[in-house]
Write a structure and sequence with these properties.
Length: about 55
């Protein structure tokens, strides 16, 4: 009977915890600080960039 690879299983658990922690941190950054739960007013990647004024 083969032995269980405990180091592999432990590493997989650690990676899963890290993934969940990163997801939680990302969600936390997306919410507004006032606690409304809505996304921040950040420009979308699809939105055109505002044009800079050039001095005349």
């Amino acid at each position: 009977m083969a032995k269980t690879n405990f180091q592999y299983e432990k590493r997989q658990r650690e990676l899963e915890k890290k993934k969940k922690a990163e997801e939680k941190a990302r969600r936390k950054l997306e919410t507004k600080p006032d606690g409304t739960g809505e996304a921040n007013d950040t420009p979308d990647d699809d939105a055109p960039a505002p044009e800079a004024e050039t001095p005349a």
